[in-house]
């Protein structure tokens, strides 16, 4: 190990030189992260080892993903103002709203189901009246 004159260890020049990325590669990584692509997906598409990718771009991708989510939320909010279905979806996603049905009977019991009986196809009203086929109560 080499020692500097002040007694501290000298940094070795051994090993691989630091990885350099072009502006085009960085712009491509930024775009993919903005669109919520995962680190593994971006690294594979760019031909970069995942450890190297995370070393150089984890913080940057985290920031770009946050920016992408903000853009998406803004677009959804604008769409919500024009579309009631989107407003319902927005409320469920961001305001904790849910669909719920009131199924309580308040101690009164449940109402009897209504049954409709239709006469066979091709039967006239008069025939159905004679046989009682249109009267579900008899």
Specify the helix fraction band.
40-55%
Structural class: mainly alpha
Shape assignment: elongated
Order of helices and strands: HHHHH
Determine the strand fraction and express it as a percent band: under 5%
Q: Taking all residues together, what is the mean pLDDT? A: 81
Instruction: Outline the low-pLDDT stretches.
Output: 133-138
Total helices: the number is: 5
> How would a crystallographer describe the biggest sheet?
none
Span of the ends, CA to CA: 104 Å
Report the oligomer: single chain
Tell me how many strands there are. Answer: 0
Radius of gyration of CA atoms, rounded to a whole number: 34 Å
Explain what this protein looks like in three dimensions:
The protein is built from 5 helices and no strands. The protein is an all-alpha fold and 138 residues long. The chain has a domain at 23-94. The protein is elongated and about 115 Å long.
What keywords describe this structure?
138 residues; 5 helices; mainly alpha; 50% helix
SSE map:
Elements: H1 23-34, H2 39-46, H3 50-80, H4 84-94, H5 125-131
Condensed summary:
With 138 residues, this protein is mostly helical. Helix content is 50%, strand content 0%.
